[in-house]
Hints:
Blueprint (H helix, E strand, L loop, with lengths): L7 H11 L3 H7 L22 H27 L3 H25 L5 H25 L4 H43 L3 H15 L3 H9 L2 H9 L8 H11 L3 H9 L2 H10 L5 H14 L11 H20 L3 H17 L2 H8 L2 H9 L8 H14 L5 H7 L2 H8 L9 H21 L3 H9 L2 H10 L8 H17 L6 H8 L3 H9 L7
Helix pairs in contact: 2-4, 3-4, 3-6, 4-5, 5-6, 6-7, 7-10, 8-11, 9-10, 10-13, 12-13, 12-14, 13-15, 14-15, 15-18, 18-21, 20-21, 21-24, 23-24, 24-26
Amino acid sequence: MHLIQVDSVQQWMEDLKLMTDCECMCILQSKPISVEKDEQNELILSSQCSTWDNLQLLLKRAWIISTELTRIARKLEKNRWQRVHSMTVRVNCHVRSMVNEYNAFIRNSSEEMHQFENLLIDKCSEFTAFTERCIQTEDEKILKSMKSSVNETLATVAQYFGQLIELVLTCEAQNLLKQIELSDSMYSTELAINSLFSLTQEGARLCRIIAKEGGVVALFKICRQDCFRCLYPQTLRTLASICCVEEGMHQLEKVNGILCLADILTDNTHSEATHAEAAAVIAQITSPHLTFTQHLSSFLENMEEIVTALVKLCQEASSGEVFLLASAALANITFFDTMACEILLQLNAMKILLEACSDKHIVDTPYSRDQVVTILANMSVLDQCASEIIQGNGVQLLVEMLFERSSSGNSAEVAACERVQQKSAVTLARLGRDPEVADAAIKLNCIPRLIKLCRSPAERNNSDSVLVACLAALRRLAVMSPDGLEDSDFQQLVKPRLVDSFLLCTNMEESFV
């Protein structure tokens, strides 16, 4: 589960509340010490907090139980019976605490939920008693025969636990969606949407639950009411999160969500923030990494309108974040359908994107450059693209992108830099068939840089995909200008089969002699 990254000491203090002493908890059976109704007892975790605070507490407790169950399985493999028993006692305590905690704030728990509570608590008690018998037995043969039963009991506890958590989270998602549907005030609607968004950040499992319970339908209902215009940005942000799962995508298709998004993007009366969040939803549902976008037939019907609006958003973006969202949506659409590249060419998008790259306040990160070069790479398959690149000084930009390096060393940024290098080399390889483009690249000393990327693994962060792209671009340019290479470079990087040159470069090691 997702846990918010905070200062380590602060996180330890938060977790300490949940790490209660096992023996004390066994004796107390999670009952409060105080019986006075008006006295706030600090030992009771389920205090008068907001629904979201209580839900966060539940998720943290669930994460701890899940972690403990995994550790029990590992200790069981090593026959660490004493550790298995002490951890089983701890899980038993946490489960009872969790049940008490969510019963204190949940509003309409079902009969099925109570049934699973009893099943889980009974099975945990049985598990604890079982492991206690194991530590009292020294006979290895008896322990070996008991081990399979212990494993089965552990699996059952994990199963009941998972089903109970699913029911609790489903119940809470239903409550939030009911709040959105029945709310008669802007404040309570906003509160419910924000809580729903926070819930989506806890992982795909919760997004599936929300989608199945009608979350996409409820949120698009908000996006179709003018009185909620000020809530559109956070509503669309929540939709983008839910649509990372297949269930969310199916619901989006059912409620004709694409048409709604197209209407929002093409409506000039909406704020830039609303347009940006709508672009984020488009970027999510057209992601090339998803395998379930084929059913988005309605997207093709509205594609020209959407692409036109996204190009305009790129052109008028007031910040790097807005440009990133709009360009990411365009980049994904160019993978989604080849017709998008032709539309982009007609809209003069190449010039707009290249001009944006010269503004360091707009295209200010490797992530933004990654989106731009993705669009250029996908558009470069069109014959008309070469002249647009020349006119917009795009060859110089592509050569500059071969020098992309991370300034922070952050792993995500390093990966983005690799993609920029790879895609710029791919684009040069594709456009290199045009003599004018090839000549411009050669004059900008593109060949020496490609050679360095091939021969020096550190320059490409040891990326094989960058190496293959650079070899392909080098071979294309070498055809146009064979005199630009030294004989050793030609013999090793151009003349052999691509796979042989690849193996030669990947086996290169630094000499310290």
